[in-house]
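Note to self: user wants both folds in one dump. Writing first protein now.
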Amino acid sequence: MHSLDEAAIFKHLHEPSPRAFFLLFYTTQCNQCKIAHARLARIIQKNTFEVDFFTCNLDEAPAVAEYFGIRSVPVCMTYDKKGKQQRVEYALKSEAVYESMVLGINTHKGDPKSRLLGF
């Protein structure tokens, strides 16, 4: 996972990207954010996705929080290769939910039997 600052987030949102991407928005002191980050790291370790994974610390990017209207964290968003938002999940979710978000934008679907939720 790569950390992005305000400028990089806005650039990524407004310029075409060759790959789909997953965004995790968090704050430094949020314990649920730390759990969400760990769950996402486990998903990344056990699978190969054609998806870029990014994080953004909203303590250092207040304009991003304002742009999206984020009032609580963690928040996860997925975008397809065309830059269209596919899914948004607020609050801490299960590992299965995060994996289903990634699978929804993954261009290489793989064997359906190997996927956690069968999407």
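First done. Writing the second protein, which came from a different request thread.
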Amino acid sequence: MSERRIYIDSSGAISILDEVVIDGHRSVSSRARVVTHIHSDHIVNLMPSIGSSYRLIGTHVTLSWLPVLGYPVMASSIYLSYGTRIKVGSVRLELVKSHHIPGTAQVLAELEDGYRVLYSSDFKKPGESTPLVEADTLIIDAVYGRPSYVRRFDDVIEDLLVDLVRQLLSESSVHIYGYYGKLNEVMELLRSRGVDAPFILPSKVYMMTKKAENLGHRVEDYILLGTREASEVMRNGWYVYLDHTTRAHSRASRSASSISSIILSGWEFEKPIKKLANRTWHVAFSDHSDFRGLIQYVASVKPRKVYVVRARSNGAEEFAAYVSENLGIKEVVVA
């Protein structure tokens, strides 16, 4: 396969055959851009793509959330369901489900000669809730690419989080802070485990939840912050408030001392839950596979060549060296 068929730039933009670009912007590519999900490192330079009239391709959830974050979605955009194939130039594209945040997709690109290129995007639980497909070339984001990035408690962290929320709700209201999309995952988790306290949501989280609900992601009993109904619920003192992680400390400092706060963090590998001061807990709830999951994913894809995306990886060189030495893949490139 010609090296010129795949190009990855310093921002993490992935170009295939100069016909489609994934999770980045390139002016030399065709007028199509795949958005795998709405996290900031995957919508890099999205406005230049929109300004250049690129056709955006993504899942229904992803494309419906972009306007909430301030990105207009053109009428020509393609809302693609998992498993549906379309052709962009000479590239056949398919979005494959990924367990990360709602709407996240792996991207499978098949070229005219049958050569298969797979981009992992972000994922966890490979082989369980993230389907595994084989490809000739794998492009991977090794977010936790160092061998030391291992969480031994990944299999039980959901149970531990739900148990903590239940315990804290028996004492006071609970504030949960995490990134957009992860909050929606947590809401669905809590509801699936029987936590029925009302959710109080600021406007962006509320609008994203409403959009997701229209696409089948139901959580029920969520209320917009600032409404009369929300004020009444908050006076009663039994609710779960969910907001973006950047507002964790500022809001916690203004909250009543009896309110419990949970900050969701993927960068914790020693303990699943750490108690901090002032009724605040760190919970190691990550939406990314740890090092073990990354290696399992690569081994299952069975690629002949691997690209490790430096812009979205930590320990990219260490990960590449490990894959080359331990999985027998001769061509491993950090790009």
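Dump finished. Worth passing along: The CA atoms of residues 126 and 297 lie 6 Å apart.
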